[in-house]
Structures are given as C-alpha cells and as structure tokens.
Design brief:
Layout: E1 9-12, H1 25-36, E2 42-45, H2 57-71, E3 76-80, H3 86-98, E4 103-107, H4 116-129, E5 135-139, H5 141-144, H6 150-159, E6 163-168, H7 173-182, E7 188-191, H8 197-202, E8 207-210, H9 213-228, H10 232-248, H11 256-264, H12 281-291
Parallel strand pairs: 1-2, 1-8, 2-3, 3-4, 4-5, 5-6, 6-7, 7-8
Amino acid sequence: MLRYDAGEVITAMVTPMDKDRKVDYNGMEVLAKHLTDNGTDTILVAGTTGESPTLTFEEELELLNSVRAIVGKSAKIVMGAGSNCTATAITASKKAAAAGADAILSVVPYYNKPSQRGMYEHFSSIAKAVKDVPLILYNIPGRTGVNMLPDTVAKLANEFDNIVAVKQSFPDMDIITELKSKLPQDVAIYCGDDSLTLPMLSLGAHGVISVASHVVGKEVKSMVRAFKEGRLEDALKLHLHLAPLFKKLFMAPNPVPVKYALSKVDIIGDYVRRPLVELTEDEKIEFLKVFKNYI
C-alpha cells in the first residue's frame, strides 16, 4: 500500500486565459469538468504546464479554490508550491495546505543549481514545515539545471513519512531502476513525460503526471490500466497509437501546443502569457496534421 495514492493519471492542468491573458475562471470550470470526465484521477494546479512562473500566488490560490469547488470529491487536487527559495517554498506550501490542497508538488530549486546536500536541506525544511501534508518531489533537470540523484530522494523518503512520491522527468531508465530499488516500497514514482509512461510503468512507476491527458485522457488511462492488468499487447498498441501526439505536444514550449489542441475541441482558448507565444499559423497546420487523428 502506498503512503498516499494520487491515482494513476494526474493531469498537470493548463491555466485557461482570456484574450487579455487574464485567468479565465469560466474556462477553468469547463476544463476541470472535462478532465474529471475523461480519465483524470487528480488535477495538478499551478504546475509548469499551468504557467506557474507567470501566475501570482493570489491567482494560484484562487485556482485551487475554484477547482475544489467544481470537482468536489470527484478528484484529488495537488498544488505546485515549489520555489528556488526555500523560505518562499515553505510559505507557499503552508498556504496551499491551509487552502485545502490534498498534496503538494515541490520542484528541485531552479537556477541556484544546489548541491545534493542543498537539495536535501531544502526538501527537509519543507517536509518539516508541512508534516501533515503529502509532498511529491519533482525532478526535472532540463528546467532546473541540476539532477536530484536517487540516493538523495531515498534519503528524504526514508526520513520523512510525508514525502510520498517523486515525479521524474528525465529520460534515463537506469535512474528509474535505481530509484525503484532504493526507495521505500510505499513511495510512488510518477512519470513526468507522456512518451515515457509505458517504459516507466514496466520499471515500477505507479502512474503519470500527464499533459496529453487534457485531450486523450481516456486513452492514457486505458494504457496504464492495460499494463497493470497484464494486457501488455493492448498497452503497447495504445502507446504506439498515442506516440505521435505525445511528440507533437512538445513541438513548442509547453503548454502552447496543448492549449491549441484544447481550443480545437472547444474546451478553452489557446492564449498564453508572455514570454510564451501562441503557435504560428504554419505551426498550427503542422500540429493539426497529427492531431486530426485523435479528434
């Protein structure tokens, strides 16, 4: 049994924007319901896919409150509350917990490029400050500039019971093997890249924190279920079917392509906040050559 089960498919929810690039709370209501109706077990609010670097903390808390009001008990809510400042991450985590987040996603400090000891001290401080709230560590070296090693993750998970999972966004399956062998058995590993979901499941990952689940949520859920039920050929068939879309959703900085995809199925608009920019007309044509096979 896991320390905390956030489900198999966590959707890193985009933040809907209107044409003035203000948060579109009406669009968010439509989106949140769409996600819970289409394979999402848990909604991640204010993650990178939610354009968290451009959101104010007041907006993040309002998003959390609004999503909670919409989904009720039909889905759990994880809130991104990380920072490259430990004190800020602690404050954000406390506020997220007080606002009713079921769990917190906390990213490895970016830009500072801390050592492994620095990462340990950072996450230890957060875990102590919100000891009654499940904490998911987030390792994404491509954005942070540093890689949190399996020994560091294992040390933290062994010392703090509220460290319940790690989101791993790094295409090295040897590291997943090492994580699985060193982490306590009740600590979950989540894939942070849709295209690696099936390989990581084969190495013991519990599920995926997904972008593609915005538009193919039922298929992503079916792939995970097929694998866990031993229907490996079905899981592989779904993976191969979804692979072109997984790739195209990252043809431009996330979440630009997935917001465009959502606009094409009339869920929300494709507006993003600067410094991100919407797809060009040529890029839209290129994207639709693939996406048309999924709608």
